[in-house]
Structure formats: structure tokens, C-alpha cells
């Protein structure tokens, strides 16, 4: 990981003001590197703080569209096992092209997937993996290609919203066999070949994870494959055994084959429809999105979608590496939440049992890595695509209505109670407060309130994952004591972290309640938003485990991972009070003590960028007398924790959160408190950023640099007027205009260093 270099120097007062021409603004897809994050990270913080699994960003080189139903990826890992993505860069054997529902950048599991593997020559149904080199691959957002020299065939795949198209090009005249398998680790997959209808169809039942682990998720991944020409030979197989029957199911190693005789240079194209409702849904999706077999046209259309999407943010810089990192991050930030409904609006009922619901309008989305994405990925699209956020909110509200409780971490269209907190509250409250709403606000509020105030009537409901974990202890003690081990959760214990995150969620809901004029709820919730203070130990200046009798845990290890902290240390988690940093500073003894505590964290090497609770930490100097330290810290993280190439991410990307952090920080502002609509300033790494808003307005961030190494803010102007604050607001951005940031080589220790110029705490 090299430090990001700024290659062009500027004289005093100079700046780069040109606007990219239409020709220059095209071709952004070329900067995207889908392989980024497929190799292990080597950053210092990842090596020190992360487990072996956490060092993988766990992204996949997916050919897809933004937020598409199915991602199409090379498959080097054939299972759907937890924490094993379909593809690792270190692998050199391909065993298929997968229609995947992997949660990008996660340590979870794939589900409802299937794979298609081309082989030539004699039919074989075991040991057919093909060795390859990375020089044999081409990977872009809209297409993936690989030359399988072992079989002398090229395989390529492209995508639409719900479908995929594959094309196989022969390097010699030979037999081509396609092996199709449902990747069911539960051995429940079904595949059928229907020569008369000219299709292969199948499904892979999805299973729950975390709460209710292993139970049916109440839907399957369905697929329908259609061929450009009729296969000359078809059948089913179970490992090495071949059968003449037309279907096979519930066996490991089961699949279908289709054989063709092709000449050298001849191409075979197949179309694949996917659905979460039914085979008929997959057929409808296929007919609507891919009525023909023109591979090049589909790939061109998908590339155009990515070009249009990526061009919503245009950056000006002479540093090509920075462009690659930025637009790769943009691509990664647009993998999930996942489109879940068919073209006719049908989708599987949330937490249902193969029941199908019908949307009146819009789309239904799932796979919200909520503990991660509420921090920056969702706020990014509050700016870029407010109607999309409104649609996401409606999808979440539907889940709450259909299941009776708002899900904590809605993935696999099921309750999971994965991670901690109740951050759906943050997403919906933030959307409403920013005016991003066509949803029924009172209905949404009541579902969120149910989570915040009520405990499930039966243990069975609670065990299923409904309601906040340990809410009874939280309400009784005003913190969660160590005696409550939170047994009915995948993340057990973690009492201090859970207390702190509930306090933030209560703040978010309090703001929603206030906007709806629910005064009593507001009073109760805003008081609960201060419950983080009950796990703060004044004597140590850090959060600390606490017993039910009020005594602190002993011994106290501030820099070791403890059971009462989520995936981190007490020192790291102390700074998770996004809604009330001035209040946290007060507990520490004032802003100067907050600054010293931050200094200690960074000086001791205890900052861990690979895990989300730390993402706001570098920006917290903006609440002290030294905002310039935020500018230095963020620049260092941008350089050390992100690069291009396969190892370019310092930890699990977690559905785009790590990538969204980069995008915000590189552009010069970050939402420490997502609900507030305030964005803490840092120094951008680009000369100019232009955000093309959906309203037709533009928001420009323009850097004026004194010298080559200029990274410290000396002055900020908003629409031509000097702005003393070290933050901007959602309204500032969405109104359009220009933010001029003047940078110099030495810290300006007087810039925005007083509380009047900094965000306020709870209000």
C-alpha cells in the first residue's frame, strides 16, 4: 500500500477549475477494478487487529448492474459456506460461472446460487475444474471473460437487473458441454432439462443464518436457462454417474449437462432468468429483460448503465490511481441492498413460507448489512439518489408490517438479529428528517417504536429474532449489565457496545418523534440517548463493562478485545457516540481531553479502520481545538488503507461501507451522525469533485492548493461566502452550489477550532 501521491503542484491561489468535456467525462468504467478486495489485505491495522478472515474484503468480481438481483462471478469456491466468497484471487482453478447472491464484502454466506461450467472434448462430471492465470481474465462491472486454455474455450458473462447472459467461443472444433449445478450445501437443489421447451430450470432453497440458523428462509433462488440452439445431447448426473432422466434433486454433486457440436470460432449464447418467487417469475424476467440473444448489445447496455451511474460524481485529478480507487469504491458501494422483486412486482413475503406478495409500485429490496451501511453507504445515496432511499425505506416498512417487528439486520429476507443495535431506525428516521419520504410516516414510526419500547410476548418470537436483544435489561438498568449474556443472539454479550448503539438509535427515533410532534416519546427517547454515559468510567476515561450492582469489571484491559465490546476494544469503542460527541468530551473532562484521547488512540496504533465502529473516529478532532488533526488523520488513512489491485481494501467491505467511507473522505466530508444531516469536513484529495444531483443541480467541491503537499484547511467558502464552520449540511449539498476549500502545507491551528463552529451534541 503506497501513499497516495499528488502529482501536480500549484502556485499560491491557483486551482484547477476546468470542467470535464463530454468526451473526457466518458470512460469511467475503465477505472473500476472488480478484482479489488479479492485478495487478503496487508495494511498494518488489518494485520494487528483483524482475524485472518477479517483481512479479506470478501468482494467478488461481479458482472452486474447497480443493486441488481443476481451477480455473475467466476467461481473458484464451490460451496455456499459462511465467510467463503465464490472467488478468491489466490485460486487458480475455475469450476463455473456463478449466479450469486453473495453479500458483497461480507463474512456471511451465499444463497440460492447456481453455476454453469463449460468444458470441451469428452464429457466428464467430476474433476472438470480448469486451471487459469489472471492474464486469462477480463473483469469489468458489466462483463467478465475468461480464456480456459485447458478446454480452448472462452467464457463470458454480462447482466441485466434480474438476468444474465453467457457466451462461449470455441478455440477449436469440438464438443462443448455445459454443466449446470445448484450449489445447495443442504443438498436440496433441483434441476430439470426440458429439451422440447428448450430450457433448463431449477432452484436452490435458501436457508436462514444467525437466528433460526439452518431453517428454511421461505423462498428459493430460481433460474431458467434458454439456449440459442437446441442441445444435441442432454442428461443428468450425480458425481461421475450419468442418467437419462430429465431431472435430479436433493443430492450432493447433482447436475444437468447439455452438449453441442461447434466449429472453431463458433459462439454459443445462453440466457438466464433469475427470481426469488418461482420458475415462472424467472421466465417473465427473462422475457422482459432479455428477449433475444445479442450478447454484445446487452453488454453495451449494461456498460452504459454503469457509465451513467458513475458519471454522477466526476472527479478531477492527475492521479490515475486515485481515480481507480474512487470508481472501484463507487462500484462496490452499489452491490446491495439487492433488488428482490420480479418485473411484475411479485416478491417473497418477508419471513414467510413461500408466500408471494404483490407490489403496487416501486421495487422491493433486501440484504441490508444494516450495522455497517447506515454509517456512510446509505447516507451516500441520500445525496445521490433520494428516490432510491425512499424505496429502501418502503421495503423496510413492508418487512416490519409483514413480520410484526422491524428487522435488525434484514438479510435472506428473514429475521437475523445479526450484529447489534437497531439501525433500521437510523435509516428511516434520517430519510424522513431529510424530506426523503413518500412513505406513511406514522406507520413507519409505530413499527420503529414497537422495537424501541416493547418486548415480544412469547419467547418463541424473541428466539426467532424479533425485537431488540436485551431490551429488558437496557430499560431496567439504563445500560446492559454483564450479568445479561444476551444468549438468544449470534453476537452474545457485547453489553457495552449494545448499550451505546441503542443510545444512538434512541436519539434517531427521538428526532423522528419530535418531527411528528410525539412529545412524550421524544422526552423518553432523548433521555435514553444519554444512556451511553452509564457505561463510561470517569476514572479511566473510557467505556467499561459494568455489573448489575453498578461495579465496574475488573481487571480492565483497555486495548484487548473483551466480551462486552463488539469486535474491538474498549478504547476503540469509547468514541462511538456519533450523536453526542460534545457530551462524550464533557465526560472526559472537556474538548482538550477528547483531543488527548484521540491522540493516544492513534499514537498507540489502536485505530482499526477495517471495522466499522471506528469509521467516525478520525473526524472527531473536528469537535476539538485541533480540526487540522482530522485532516492529517484522514489523509493518512486514505493512503494507508486503500489502494488499487486485488488487495486494495483493509478489511471486509461489508456491502459497501468501507468503500463509501473512502468516497466521502476523498471528496472532503463525512456523516459522523447520519441522522443529523451534518457532514464533517476534511481535506479532499481531488482538485475538483462535481456531484450531479438528481434535481438537475450540481454541487462542486473545488480545492485551491498552496504547494505540492497542501493538505491543511486554511479557509472554506460556500457559494462565495467565507464559512467558519467545519461542517456542511444536507441542505447545503442538495441546494447545489460550490464549496471552495483552500489548502496549505502547514496546519492552520486557528481554523474552526471553537465550539461555535462545530456540530452540537444532543439537541
Poorly predicted regions: 1-25
Number of strands: 33
Helix content: 25-40%
Structural class: alpha+beta
Which band does the percent of strand residues land in?
15-25%
Task: State the distance separating the first and last CA atoms.
Answer: 41 Å
Mean pLDDT: 94
Cofactor: Ca(2+)
Protein name: Glycoside hydrolase family 92 protein
GO molecular function: hydrolase activity
InterPro entries: 6-hairpin_glycosidase_sf (IPR008928), GH-type_carb-bd (IPR014718), GH92_a_mannosidase_put (IPR005887), GH92_N (IPR041371), Glyco_hydro_92 (IPR012939), PNGase (IPR050883)
Could you write a compact summary of the structure shown?
By secondary structure, this protein is an alpha+beta fold. It has 20 helices and 33 strands.
Considering the chains and any ligands shown, give keywords for the structure.
763 residues; alpha+beta; 9-stranded antiparallel β-sheet; 7-stranded antiparallel β-sheet; 20 helices; calcium; signal
Explain the overall architecture:
The protein is α+β, with helices and mostly antiparallel strands. It is 26% helix and 22% strand. The protein contains 20 helices and 33 strands. The strands form 8 sheets. It has a 9-stranded antiparallel sheet with strand order 6-7-8-9-18-13-12-11-16. A hairpin with a 7-residue loop joins strand 26 (669-670) and strand 27. The longest helix has 21 residues, at 495-515.
